[in-house]
């Protein structure tokens, strides 16, 4: 339990939900139909089943896929949450997962008619991981290769095991991750645009953004100061801040 609570919060929660839900369903203790994405059931009157927006990301494939899907989900999501520079602020990785989920549900669910999107989410996370760790090696079963080829190796395996329809659903995760990368990095950096995907202050507070602490990351140690609760220079709910936020105490030169 100590190791579990010491793990990154979003990754450990998502992995635990996926592992437990998969074991319950394949063990016959939970009906598969209770978690799948199905719009008529989600907006059913008078009792809408809103949880299906989330539970459709918590089911792996059967048999050995429970082990492999859970392993890939944990490895690449925790690697991003702990070590990626693009998720340096509290709650950034949570917003990233929410963005991927919305795009996947819209494309794989709304357009392609899919019902379970766990592997699409894993592929999106693996794609972002491969973009942040281009010099690393990845192991896929007994084969070792540059991590940049990891998403394509996962798609190839899906094609062999599940066929073209499974690949079409899974590739929506790659589309979602690439769209996130474009909107938050490529367009602002090279296109002169603005990044509109920022973490609201309320989400930052959920992840301890209002408390000073020391954040140990894979590439160093970040000392984060608590956000001021009032006064000028505080950030708005959408990440905008005043240029006067870094002012000092205004001491007069030559004073005591």
From TrEMBL:
Region Disordered: start-end pairs: 227-256
InterPro entries recorded: DER1, Rhomboid-like_sf
SUPFAM superfamilies attached to this UniProt entry: Rhomboid-like
Bias kind Low complexity: ranges: 229-246
Principal subcellular localization: endoplasmic reticulum
Record localization: Endoplasmic reticulum membrane
Record's keyword terms, sorted: Endoplasmic reticulum, Membrane, Transmembrane, Transmembrane helix
Keyword Transmembrane helix: yes
TM ranges: 12-32, 53-74, 94-127, 139-161
Record bears the keyword Membrane: yes
Its membrane topology: Multi-pass membrane protein
Highest rank taxon of the organism: Eukaryota
Gly residues bias locations: 247-256
A UniProt-annotated Pfam family: DER1
Function: May be involved in the degradation of misfolded endoplasmic reticulum (ER) luminal proteins.
Family from the record: Belongs to the derlin family.
Protein name: Derlin
Organism of provenance: Lepraria finkii
């Amino acid at each position: 339990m100590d190791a579990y609570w010491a793990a990154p919060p979003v990754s450990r929660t998502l992995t635990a939900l996926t592992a437990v839900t998969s074991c319950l369903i394949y063990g016959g203790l939970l009906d598969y139909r209770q978690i799948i994405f199905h719009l008529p059931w989600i907006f059913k009157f008078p009792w809408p089943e809103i949880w299906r927006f989330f539970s459709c990301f918590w089911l792996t494939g059967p048999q050995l896929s429970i082990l492999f899907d859970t392993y890939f989900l944990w490895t690449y999501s925790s690697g991003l949450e702990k070590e990626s520079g693009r998720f340096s602020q509290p709650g950034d990785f949570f917003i990233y997962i929410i963005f991927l989920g919305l795009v996947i549900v819209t494309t794989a669910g709304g357009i392609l008619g899919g019902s379970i999107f766990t592997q699409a989410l894993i592929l999106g996370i693996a794609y972002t991981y491969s973009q942040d760790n281009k010099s690393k090696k990845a192991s896929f079963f007994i084969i070792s290769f540059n991590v940049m080829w990891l998403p394509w190796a996962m798609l190839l395996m899906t094609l062999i095991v599940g066929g073209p329809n499974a690949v079409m659903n899974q590739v929506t995760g790659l589309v979602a991750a690439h769209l996130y990368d474009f909107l938050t990095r490529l367009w602002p950096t090279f296109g002169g645009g603005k990044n509109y995907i920022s973490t609201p202050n309320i989400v930052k507070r959920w992840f301890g953004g209002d408390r000073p602490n020391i954040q140990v990351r894979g590439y160093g140690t970040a000392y984060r100061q608590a956000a001021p609760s009032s006064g000028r220079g505080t950030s708005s709910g959408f990440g905008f801040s005043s240029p006067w936020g870094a002012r000092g105490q205004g001491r007069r030169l030559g004073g005591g």
